Amino acid sequence: MKGKFVIVTGPSASGKTRLVDFLVWQVPDSAKLVTVTTRLPRPGEKDGVDYFFTDRPIFEKRMAEGEFFEHAEVYGNLYGSSKKVLWSFRERFSFVFAVIDVQGARTLKNAVTEAFAIFLRPENFADITRRLKVERRDMTEREFQERVLAAEKELSLAESFDAVIMNKEGDFESTGKQALDLIKNFQRS
């Protein structure tokens, strides 16, 4: 199989999607693994680009057929990584990057043992709560509290991944450089 597989995980609003978009832009012959979800698209998201959006009955049918490496219910929505899509991308690209929640990342790392998993953490916890309030304005207070509690638990798992990068507020350049350095080292392995 040609392509190396890199998982980027971390709590909500840690910058996972931004980092993967940056890596796809910077790393030649790379792609972003598009996962499947039952949640509704956020403003500006496109089906097949950000996620494959589907409804719960179709997702559950695909899940029962064994299509997913990993799947999880997160904040009331189902998410999954398609085996078929990942294998296809790894055949076509030198690198495949994935944005996966912490629960799914642990499962996927166990299923694809040669994957490299990066945990993206904020410099401090206040960054998460601020980003959630600013970037996810459509959340209810209950959803906000659920994400904050989940983030606290997820941060305690950071060291169980292959690498941890701190996404320092206002210094994404440093975050991107650290990730590129890790990718270069992973490429040589």
Overview features:
five-stranded parallel β-sheet; four-stranded mixed β-sheet; alpha/beta; 189 residues; globular; single chain; Rossmann fold
Helices and strands, with pairings:
Layout: E1 4-9, H1 16-26, E2 30-32, E3 36-37, E4 52-53, H2 56-64, E5 68-74, E6 77-82, H3 83-92, E7 95-99, H4 102-111, E8 116-122, H5 125-135, H6 141-155, E9 163-167, H7 172-188
CATH homologous superfamily identity: P-loop containing nucleotide triphosphate hydrolases
Q: Cα-atom Rg, whole angstroms?
A: 16 Å
Given as residue ranges, the uncertain stretches (5+ residues, pLDDT < 50) are: none
How many angstroms does the end-to-end distance come to?
Answer: 14 Å
Number of domains: 1
Structural class: alpha/beta
State the shape.
globular
CATH names the topology as Rossmann fold
Give the proportion of residues in helices.
40-55%
- Return the average pLDDT rounded to an integer: 90
Number of alpha- plus pi-helical segments? 7
Strand order of the largest sheet: 2-7-1-8-9
> Which architecture name does CATH use?
3-Layer(aba) Sandwich
Q: What percentage of the residues does DSSP assign to strands (E)?
A: 15-25%
